[in-house]
Specification:
CATH architecture of the largest domain: Sandwich
Bound molecules: fe (ii) ion
Distance between the termini: 7 Å
CATH superfamily of the largest domain: Jelly Rolls
Number of helices: 0
Length: 249
């Protein structure tokens, strides 16, 4: 999917922190919908998990991938391992998970998926932790968990020389990738054109571009020819989460 656009127009300024909360499912989750491609169901949400949350308690799988960046708090899906603030994961379609979902302290996460997360229940899971079904075949692979702080920042040829990225995952077939972009304080220049549609969420700091000030909680999208946030300066530096769609399959 090379051209997905999840807002009405490129560089539309979505202030995530001002969006209304909507109930998500029947177990107390809420979301702020940042962007959605209604043709494909591809959606990016800010998901709130309340303190003391318990999921359905039955392992399941989805036909859509689920990609998560934990902003606050913690949550367990198998009753044992906790995903905590500052981790990233990418779970392809057809991976059984959710044996025992709960969160004692609550959590806030950016969650992206390429379709509806319809639950296909697995009452007798073959393994006590998440595992792929035989048909699971996502070229991006299964990133069970990456600690953001453990990913060394590197220069990237697609981005300005002064920027660094922390690469989280990549699809070698389509070229789609997910990374954190680190913009140094005092940067001035020209935002990169990534040659594929993209989405971006500001995690920290501010960026100037397109006559806007992009701030933490802000989200927008672009097409293959839209420079990333149309950024041209950052007084205090910034940290962004960037998802690209790739140009291949
Ligand atoms: Fe799930």
């Amino acid at each position: 999917m090379a051209g997905s656009l999840k807002l009405a127009r490129p560089l539309e300024h979505v202030r995530g922190n001002d969006l209304p909360w909507e109930m998500l499912g029947t177990h107390g989750l809420k979301r702020r919908k940042l962007g959605e491609d209604v043709q494909t169901g591809h959606v990016t949400n800010l998901v709130y998990i309340p303190k003391g949350w318990r999921g359905g308690g039955v392992a399941h799988f989805h036909a859509a991938f689920e990609e998560v960046y934990m902003l606050e708090g913690s949550v367990t899906l198998d009753g044992n391992h906790y995903f905590r603030e500052g981790v990233y994961f990418y779970r392809p379609a057809d991976v059984v998970h959710g044996h025992d979902e709960r969160s004692e302290e609550g959590a806030l996460a950016l969650v992206r998926s390429d379709g509806l997360l319809v639950l296909n229940l697995v009452h007798e899971p073959e393994q006590p932790v998440e595992y792929p079904l035989p048909g699971s075949a996502d070229p991006r692979g299964h990133v069970f968990e990456t600690r953001v702080a453990d990913v060394a920042p590197v220069a990237d040829p697609a981005l300005p020389a002064e920027w660094r990225i922390r690469p989280f995952s990549q699809d070698p077939v389509s070229g789609a990738r997910t990374f954190e972009a680190l913009v140094p304080a005092g940067w001035q220049g020209k935002a990169p054109v990534l040659a594929s549609a993209w989405e971006a969420y500001v995690l920290e700091g501010t960026l100037e571009g397109a006559g806007e000030i992009w701030q933490p909680g802000d989200y927008t999208v672009g097409l293959a020819d839209t420079p990333l946030l149309a950024a041209n300066a950052s007084a205090q530096g910034a940290r962004l989460l960037v998802w690209t769609f790739g140009t291949g399959a």
